[in-house]
Amino acid sequence: MIKLIEDLKTGDVIKSEIKDGTGRVVVKIGSKVTPLLLKRLAKWGVKNVEIEGQEPKVEAKKVEKVAEKKPQNINKELVIRIAKKFSRVREDPFMDKLMKLTIKHLSAHAKPES
Amino acid sequence: MDSLNLRNRIESIDDLPTLPVVVTQILQATKSLSTNANDVGKLISDDQSLTVKVLKLVNSPFYGFPQKIKTITHAIVILGFAKVKNIVLAASVFGMTKGPKNSTVDICSLWEHALTTGIVCRQLAKLRNSKLDIEEAFVAGLLHDLGKVILICNLEDICEQVSAIVREKDCLFYEAEKELFDFGHDKIGVWLAEKWNLNPDMIEGIKCHHQPQKARGDKLMAYILHAGDIIARALDVGNGGDNKIPLMDPKVAEELDLTTENLDKLMISVLAELDKAKDFFDLIHDQN
Lengths: 114, 288
What we know:
The complex is a heterodimer.
Chain A: E1 2-4, E2 18-19, E3 25-27, H1 35-44, E4 48-50, H2 58-69, H3 76-85, H4 93-109
Antiparallel strand pairs in A: 1-4, 2-3
Helix pairs in contact in A: 3-4
Chain B: H1 3-11, H2 21-31, H3 37-45, H4 48-58, H5 72-79, H6 81-93, H7 107-128, H8 134-143, H9 146-154, H10 156-169, H11 173-180, H12 185-195, H13 200-207, H14 220-234, H15 250-255, H16 260-276, H17 278-287
Helix pairs in contact in B: 2-3, 2-6, 3-5, 4-6, 5-6, 6-8, 7-8, 7-14, 7-16, 7-17, 8-13, 9-10, 9-12, 10-11, 12-13, 13-14
């Protein structure tokens, strides 16, 4: 994975060697990032480096985005069904809150329509 | 019909739902201080069908143990007597009685509602971090509508009268019972729970799940069952014989600290647990 210098952390492992302007290897593959190396990279003007590891939680981010969008795409049948169940008690503030939360969570939990 | 006549009628039913003998023995054995894991393990293992069901449930994602539990004795050592006792109860109740095919209330749907209530009650007990054992809360939720099981399976004529009122007025099953008789499924459930020798907190909870303030002594179980029933109805899994939701007692919402934030947390955890409880839902359908 490619990381910007400012995102590097101590302990990250360099995956691709880093060369200076003359082509000389200044950081070997497998070297660990240290505070000293961070200073040197900044001094050499290196903008980004490749390090070991996967992109952080790209899938999780996608899932979160889907979940955020779902309430706007609420299943109408679900809303009608739940609202009918609550029809006699909706004037009670707690029950109204419970109904809205139920619709929100059931919609977010429902499997995406194929 | 008044409650005395009804009780007499229930007492005279020959095939009233009974717990399997082995379950009754286990309930007794787990109360004794001298019982060890091998004794109870042997009691369960003597019943092959029960052993298979219990091992399937203890190894389900619902209990989330990383390594496979292969024997009942191993399950008791890892989970403890109380938890295994409750799993045995859960594994036994779904198939203890068959609902008539043309019943106005579907027995599978009722058990699905009961199981969902059990799961909500378990999470309520867990989130509240109370002294109430979470597995006790689970079983109490599972058994809170025991009275309806008797109505469906043993008192079909009464069940039909109640259901007719529910259809006509689109009201709660409980309200229809009250309109027709001076008792409800809560009272009938207690008669059976007492026969089964269930623990007193559980019996009091079953008795008062529609009127939790009336519970004697520690009201926590009744509060959890009251809230668990309402939230399970909201989640729309299964059906308890009507299509309405009772009003939450404000005192229960206050005592269980059911704020928006806590309800949010509760719903997330309950929906996750429902996904893990597939083996329990399968058991309902396998046995009915």
